[in-house]
Amino acid sequence: MSSKPKLYYFDGRGKMESIRWLLAAAGVEFEEEFLETRDQYEKLLQGGSLLFQQVPMVEIDGMRMVQTRAILSYIAAKHNLYGKDLKERALIDMYVGGTEDLMGFILMFPFLSVEDKEKQRAFIVQKATSRYFPVYEKVLKDHGQDFLVGNNFSWADVHLLEAILMVEEKKSDVLSGFPQLQAFKARISSIPAIKRFLEPGSQRKPVPDDKFVETVRKVLCMYYDVKAN
Amino acid sequence: MSGKPRLTYLNGRGRMESIRWLLAAAGVEFEEVYLETKEQYDKLIKDGFLLFQQVPLVEIDGMKMVQTRAIMSYIAGKYNLHGKDLKERALIDMYVEGISDLMQMILMFPFSPPDAKEKNLESIKEKAINRYFPVFEKVLKQHGQDFLVGNKFSWADVQLMEAILAVEEKVPAVLSGFPQLQVFKTKMSNMPTIKKFLQPGSPRKPPPDAHYVETVLKVFKK
């Protein structure tokens, strides 16, 4: 195992993207192996590297880690992005739980039928603007600090920026009622490690397309229909 | 706020049950408020108790905590059930997240349409037997210790115990191919705090029935 973390996933966002964001924000270089064929996946399975037969899988510090949340928690703690004590960690976990739920609605989006996509787009925007964004807008307004928790850059900030950008891809003016979030977006985007990640040529993956959907379905033999929320 | 944590949820398992298990296993007494009407729920939202307008809600140590995982992480951390270092924590998190995927299938089961129930039950059985239980059987066999991680009782053990019992309710002989898990189940059942939780009259909730499903649909109706 090399000293850099190695990510095993499709060449696309999916559940791995939040991990890419967090590693990048922590200034950690990583390698990637992209799953393109069923054979590759079966080889990984037979080799016993996927604890629950699933990806994402990240080789890091001698471990073959699976389960997105576990991986993210480990990286956050290792790189001091998880608050200074249990209570700050609790706040970060709550905030990340919210942005994870929001991004979850977007995760399945590429797999939907054309009509369901329109329905889902409206659903995503509605949830973002009525349930999630107002929470973070208020948090930032109430304490007036640059970061969500403990006046320190944390996993919660990275995750929120990722969520904001993803929702904006579905509706570009979605932040129009949220001045704090607009300022937050500008601030966090200009942090050097994040700025680099947002530039072309970084390991950030583009919006998933039909080719991505086809690859996932083929590799996982996942041919059933996905329904909208 | 009294000294005890206060749980707000429906009078049934759902997403709160794992939290009840963990508090009980840690020997922590708690109070419960049961949501029975839509009006109660709407009032909670209006009064600003629910960060993302959702339950579970656990009032603990001056915080109004939501998001099941966040709540359980906090409880595990506070009561030393989250491993001794980052690597043990990573293992516990992996195990807990895996089990949680299995529990999610059981959570959703009462809400499946009648014609999908048989298929979903089969799915639960297949995943338990082929994907999840073999992992923990192997972990216990390989290190030969009583507990999943670090030779010490942790959140992972509580979560696995809960899952075993929940699956057994649906698939009674499910542990027949898993001798290590049978021993594990017996050992966990005999731990004082868990033994107490498994006795009648504890805060443990029964399997969801039609009344529970009805209440959920009523309280969360849009």
TrEMBL record, chain A:
User: Is Transferase given among the entry's keywords?
Assistant: yes
Q: Name one GO molecular function term.
A: glutathione transferase activity
Q: What is its EC number?
A: 2.5.1.18
Which keywords, in A-to-Z order, does the entry hold?
Transferase
Keyword Signal included in the entry's annotation: no
Residue ranges annotated for the GST N-terminal domain, each copy included? 3-83
The broad enzyme category this protein falls into is transferase
Q: Where is the GST C-terminal domain?
A: 85-209
**InterPro entries assigned:** Glutathione-S-Trfase_C-like, Glutathione-S-Trfase_C_sf, Glutathione_S-Trfase, Glutathione_S-Trfase_N, GST_alpha, GST_C, GST_superfamily, Thioredoxin-like_sf
Biological-process GO terms, alphabetical: glutathione metabolic process; xenobiotic metabolic process
Q: Which family does it belong to?
A: Belongs to the GST superfamily. Alpha family.
Name-wise, this protein is glutathione transferase
The scientific name of the source species is Elachura formosa (spotted wren-babbler)
From TrEMBL, chain B:
Please state the gene responsible for encoding this protein. Answer: Gsta3_1
Q: Which InterPro entries match?
A: Glutathione-S-Trfase_C-like, Glutathione-S-Trfase_C_sf, Glutathione_S-Trfase, Glutathione_S-Trfase_N, GST_alpha, GST_C, GST_superfamily, Thioredoxin-like_sf
EC number(s): the record gives 2.5.1.18
Specify the GST C-terminal domain's residue ranges: 85-209
Q: Which GO terms describe its biological process?
A: glutathione metabolic process
Q: Into which family does the record put it?
A: Belongs to the GST superfamily. Alpha family.
Provide the protein name.
glutathione transferase
Q: Which segments constitute the GST N-terminal domain?
A: 3-83
Q: Which GO terms describe its molecular function?
A: glutathione transferase activity
**Annotated organism of origin:** Elachura formosa
Q: Which PANTHER family match?
A: GLUTATHIONE S-TRANSFERASE (PTHR11571), GLUTATHIONE TRANSFERASE (PTHR11571:SF230)
Keywords recorded for this protein, A-Z? Transferase
